[in-house]
Structure formats: C-alpha cells, structure tokens
Amino acid sequence: MSLSAAAALWFLPFVLPICVYICYTDMKGMRIPNHAVVALFLVYLFVGVVALPLDVYFWRYLHLVVVLVAGIALNAGGAMGAGDAKFAAAAAPFIHIGDLRFLMALFAANLLAAFVAHRLAKRTPLRHLAPHWHSWEAGSKFPMGLALGGTLAIYLGLGLFYGA
C-alpha cells in the first residue's frame, strides 16, 4: 500500500468512530448526517496537518473537490444519495492516490459483503434487534453508508499493518 503506516496510525483512532456512526445512522434512518461528514472533514483538517507532509496534505484537498464534483453529478443523475456523495468527498483526502485501484477493489468487495449481510439480516431474526430501522423497509434502496464507512475504516486499518 502507498498509504504510510504512520498516517494510518494518526487517522484511524479518529476516523473509525465516525465510520461506525455513519454505518449505524445510514442503516437506522437511511441518512448520513451532515455533522458526521463535517466531523470527518475536521479530522482531516486538524490531524492531516500532523500526519502528512504539508505538500501532500494540501494536494489531497484536490481529491475532495474531484470526488465532490463527481458525487454531485451522480446524485443529480439519481445514482447516488447526497449524503453518500458528501461522505465520499470528505473521505477522499484520507486516500493515497497510489492506492486507488486497491481501494476500488476493496470497495467492490465491501459493497457486496455489506449488501448480502444487510439483506440476510433483513430476512432473519436479527432484524428484531433493531425493528424500527428504515433500511429494512426501504425496498430496493440500500444504505450505502454501510459500505462507504466500512471501506474507509478497513482501508485505514490495512494501512496500519501494510502501509509504506
């Protein structure tokens, strides 16, 4: 992985609780709250300046802009929720550009696993642990925050052990 283990070590303790919270809120209410996205951005703003060299730190804001523009376009086309687009944009600066192919494969695997796990839980007694979650009744819609938050958390966790 191109992500440094030191950067992953700095980011993971702050990002992991936010990712778990985003997974929870998206499954519960089919929404990714703005305050969670802002919190993720603030982690990068304050921790990133310590975790990364300054030139890298500033260039990664370009990742945020590119992903936000793509997310807005996907949202306008109905392919992605607005919260998902905002979360992906706030998560983008944490990703080393050299890991992009790996991240796409990780996201695809995590999306498939999250989708299957969610659909199975929806049809089993596990559903009774959280009977009022909106994601159970959302029809064909899927709480993408479950896959997005999980992917960022797993990426940083793998970076901790396998990072440069």
Automatic annotation (TrEMBL):
<dbReference type="Pfam" id="PF01478">
    <property type="entry name" value="Peptidase_A24"/>
</dbReference>
<protein>
    <submittedName>
        <fullName>Type IV prepilin peptidase TadV/CpaA</fullName>
    </submittedName>
</protein>
<dbReference type="GO" id="GO:0004190">
    <property type="term" value="F:aspartic-type endopeptidase activity"/>
</dbReference>
<dbReference type="InterPro" id="IPR000045">
    <property type="entry name" value="Prepilin_IV_endopep_pep"/>
</dbReference>
<dbReference type="GO" id="GO:0016020">
    <property type="term" value="C:membrane"/>
</dbReference>
